[in-house]
Amino acid sequence: MIENLVTRFCSPTLAGLKTGSLFTVRDRRREELTEDLRKLNRILTRKGLRALLFTAKCGNSLVYIYRPDLLKRDLSSFEAEKILKDKGYLATDSTERCIVQLARRISNDNDFPHEIGLFLGYPPTDVKCFMENSRDGVTCSGCWKAYGNKEEAEKIFALYRKCTNVYCRKIREGIRLEKLIV
């Protein structure tokens, strides 16, 4: 079951096109989900990916799959560091510490931490604009709300959709998930 969810929601990350992906898992015992992720991580870590389990304030489980090397690159940009510092992240030079702080914010804060877009590979400018006013200036929507170059964002959205469709088809054809991970 977890492989189907990972394929459906994380294909662009598995393909190396996207830094990270996040999806919600409802109605599963935490112990069972933790064991599924432990098994999944045996596959992912060999391919340079990681899977983490976050608990949202509402009690749902969130699965975060990411590429540590891409996340480090993304979070080290000037714009991303500024957003994180403005949101109270203390050690922006440590990807792992930023992830720990994000997990705490997801489980403890009243408001959802919209800086999560940085952890998913969204452009920092779009993350910042969304955090300031999620409605004004939107040029298009797909995986995220884009506020800048509409054509570029739409190309990325189309690429992610195509990737997801191909990966889902391959899984239905019986190809194992580990064979699809780039």
Q: Would you identify the regions where 5 or more consecutive residues have pLDDT less than 50?
A: none
Mean pLDDT, all residues: 94
Quickly count the domains.
1
Category by helix and strand content: alpha+beta
Radius of gyration: 16 Å
Count of helical regions: 9
- Main beta sheet: strand number and arrangement? 3 strands, antiparallel
Structure report:
55% of the residues lie in helices and 12% in strands. With 182 residues, the protein is an alpha+beta fold. The protein has one domain. The strands form two sheets. A three-stranded antiparallel sheet has the order 1-3-2, sandwiched between helices. A two-stranded antiparallel ribbon has the order 4-5. A hairpin with a 5-residue loop joins strand 2 and strand 3. The model has no long low-confidence stretch (mean pLDDT 94).
List keywords for this structure.
globular, 9 helices, alpha+beta, 182 residues
List the helices and strands and how they pair.
Blueprint: H1 2-14, E1 20-25, H2 30-46, E2 50-55, E3 61-66, H3 68-75, H4 78-86, H5 95-108, H6 116-119, H7 124-132, E4 140-141, E5 145-146, H8 150-172, H9 177-180
Antiparallel strand pairs: 1-3, 2-3, 4-5
Helix pairs in contact: 1-8
What is the gist of this entry?
By secondary structure, the protein is of the alpha+beta class.
